[in-house]
Specification:
Strand order of the largest sheet: 1-2-3-4-5-6-9-10
Distance between the termini: 69 Å
Mean pLDDT: 90
Radius of gyration: 25 Å
Number of helices: 14
Structural class: alpha/beta
Low-confidence stretches: 1-13, 520-534, 556-560
Shape: globular
């Protein structure tokens, strides 16, 4: 139920805006990704440990800061009119689908950030679907048997979400599920992963299962009454596929097999779009890229819009949008990417299709300032939609001498710790020192570092001693387990990789209470100012010293001691 702190934009009357009007009025959209959707589990839905295992800290477990209202206001001032808020639920609900009250309240708060800015907001059921992996298993599959097993749980989940927001007006939309895949984890079209890349029985079950989930979603929301009786609702095609390409006959099946879950008027179809602007590392021509965009829009109009409902690109970007810092198309071929983005947005608008860019623009530390990490891209999108004379606001992050990544207790767990994004390092300098304050339990304790892409454990130095990715406090600083502070430095090659990849700090039987990154382009720690303890003494390589000697850093200041 709505609380006394209900958004000022919640309304007591039925919604009146049609689906077509909503899509046209949304304007330019953006995804608040890797935030409320972040999750991590090696358990499967058959395990009790799978359900409700996370607390509110899951919001930051993929390296994004806690979302604040001023981030959304910044997006509004940049020309963005709609925010899609992906939400993962399985790790915040029990096996019967009862959602944790604190999690629902947090989702509610973020929704209000958007609605209170007079923007459109979409909330969904996100990584409860998707491809299975070692660290993720979805409980919702495009499969008849899976639907039968999970129908009650799925409908109960949506009944709670719908009740929570039933009095909100036109600008809040619900999306039933994200990228729903078959039991084979097939992308592109159902049964793509089968032998021969097609299995008619698997495909038939997948499309029937997906359409059953879509119908359950719509009927469950409608049954809660209030504004939900006519709220605009969004359903994705299979895998959110857009039907592009001609290399297989079955590529348009996700569109042709998609059914209208109720009469047209308040239903919106959603697809996702991540075309390639390079092949084998070589940039494609803008003419080829535009031809692909035209093909995607033509397929969507022919097979979805013709059914009587408008369409949104709920996620879009290039195929390299999640490649990691230094490896994205924005990093490697920016001019071409900006041309693609300009064309994609302008052509989508011309065809009455709303676009929600996936996650970039502001990422990591910049969200907490708030500022844009890709200000020129944000401006390109805004001008493509609003016109070349549009003047938005695009603040950027200024250079920092240090950054406090953590200021509260955080128990380290294997595969889930503290992520220091590459943009933090890039905005500090070229070489770095990471200071950790922690407590630990002797014997089984371990602090382990990984690059943020989880590719390699970098070597590092503590008090001049080199460690190969792991540091065990009880072996190095004693068995008492009390609070300790250590400073970690890196060689030149590692510093360079941190600028590209970022860093993850995780481990076992260690609780961090503070993590600070220091640095400067001229040397690891020169010119640092901080509130460090009076007895903190370091040499110019960032290594801890027992006493001040020669040129060194004392309490954050460069001094010379004879």
């Amino acid at each position: 139920m709505l609380t006394a702190s209900m958004s000022v934009w919640a309304q007591e009357v039925q919604t009146t805006e049609t689906a077509q009007e909503a899509v046209k009025n949304m304007g330019l959209g953006w995804n608040l990704g890797n935030t409320l959707d972040a999750n991590n589990t090696s358990s499967t839905p058959d395990d009790d440990a799978y359900w409700g295992a996370a607390d509110l800290t899951s919001e930051t477990c993929w390296g994004q800061p806690v979302t604040k209202a001023d981030l959304i206001t910044m997006m509004k001032n940049a020309g963005i009119g709609a925010i899609r808020v992906p939400v993962t639920w399985y790790n915040h609900m029990d096996e019967d689908g009862n959602v944790d009250e604190a999690w629902m309240k947090r989702v509610h708060t973020v929704v209000d950030y958007v609605i209170d800015n007079d923007m459109y907001c979409i909330i969904n059921v996100h990584h409860d679907t998707g491809a299975d992996s070692d660290s993720h298993h979805s409980w919702i599959k495009a499969d008849e048997e899976n639907y039968t097993q999970n129908k009650t749980r799925f409908e109960h989940l949506w009944a709670q979400i719908a009740e929570e927001f039933k009095d909100y007006g036109d600008k809040l939309l619900f999306e039933g599920y994200n990228e729903m895949l078959d039991k084979l984890n097939s992308w592109c079209y159902a049964s793509f992963n089968a032998q021969g890349q097609y299995d008619a029985a698997v495909a038939k079950s997948a499309y029937k299962g997906l359409n059953s989930y879509a119908k359950s979603f719509v009927e469950t929301v409608r049954a809660t009454g209030g504004n939900n009786a006519t709220r605009n609702l969004i359903v994705n095609t299979y895998a959110a596929a857009n039907g592009s390409g001609n290399w297989k006959t079955y590529l348009t099946d996700p569109l042709t097999e998609m059914e209208m879950p109720e009469a047209a008027g308040h239903i919106i179809f959603e697809v996702h779009c991540y075309p390639s602007i390079a092949n084998n590392g070589l940039s494609r021509s803008i003419t080829e890229i535009k031809r692909d965009v035209d093909d995607i829009i033509d397929k969507v109009n022919t097979h979805l819009v013709a059914k009587g409902a408008p369409v949104i690109f709920g996620e879009w970007g290039t195929s390299g949008v999640d490649a990691g810092a230094g490896a994205t198309d924005y990093d490697l071929r920016r001019e071409l990417m900006l041309q693609f983005c300009d064309y994609f947005v302008s052509q989508s608008k011309a065809n009455d299709i709303a676009t929600f860019y996936w996650m970039g623009l502001s990422d990591g530390i910049t969200r907490s300032i708030p500022a844009f990490s890709q200000a020129d891209l944000a401006e390109t999108l805004a001008k493509a939609y609003h016109g070349s004379d549009f003047e938005g606001e695009y603040p950027v992050m200024e250079h920092m001498a240090s950054y406090e990544c953590l200021s509260e207790e955080k128990p380290l767990e294997w595969g889930n710790g503290i992520t220091i994004n590459s943009d933090i390092f890039r905005n500090i300098g070229n070489s770095f020192m990471v200071e950790l304050t922690y407590t630990y339990k002797p014997d089984e304790d371990d602090i382990q570092l990984f690059y943020a892409d989880w590719s390699v454990k970098p070597s590092f130095y503590v008090d001049g001693k080199e460690y190969e990715g792991d540091y065990n406090p009880s072996q190095e600083v004693g068995e008492d387990g009390g609070e300790k502070t250590v400073s970690i430095t890196f060689d030149k090659a590692t510093n360079e990789l941190l600028l590209k990849k970022g860093l993850v700090i995780h481990g076992n039987d260690v609780t961090l209470s503070k993590v600070i990154v220091y640095g400067h382009a001229e040397s690891p720690i020169k010119h640092i100012t901080s509130d460090r303890r009076e007895d903190a003494v370091y040499n110019l390589q960032g290594q801890r010293m027992t006493e001040a000697q020669g040129m060194c850093i004392v309490n954050g200041k460069l001094v010379y001691v004879k």
